[in-house]
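Example 3.2
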Amino acid sequence: MEGTSKKPGIREDRAGHETIVGPQRELLDQLLDKWGHLLLAALCRQPRRFNELKRELDGVTQKSLTQALRRLERNGLVERRVLMQRPVAVEYRITPLGRTLEEPFSILRSWTADHLPEVERHREAFDKGADTLH
């Protein structure tokens, strides 16, 4: 039956192709956004303060970093701790739930490293073909 699946957040069409929908789609979008996966990778290595993360993630703005950290914290993947010292500092660390993403993200990073030369060949061929069309 179209639009149904035994998996929550998954919809199947008549051909049996699965599509991620609803809250699962939102969560996946947040994990794979421009900064989410990079933040999780950095925090899997060790807890970091805000400015350490900002320095490590070249190009991230303060606003984007704050928003990404809040989304990850809201999802239970990152924990924010206020360090009682002078001046007061904030540290972010991975939670046990966030740590469960370390292996899948590592696999994805390995895949990109292993297949980047092939992908670049396809990009080059595509771009050459696109040039001849215009």
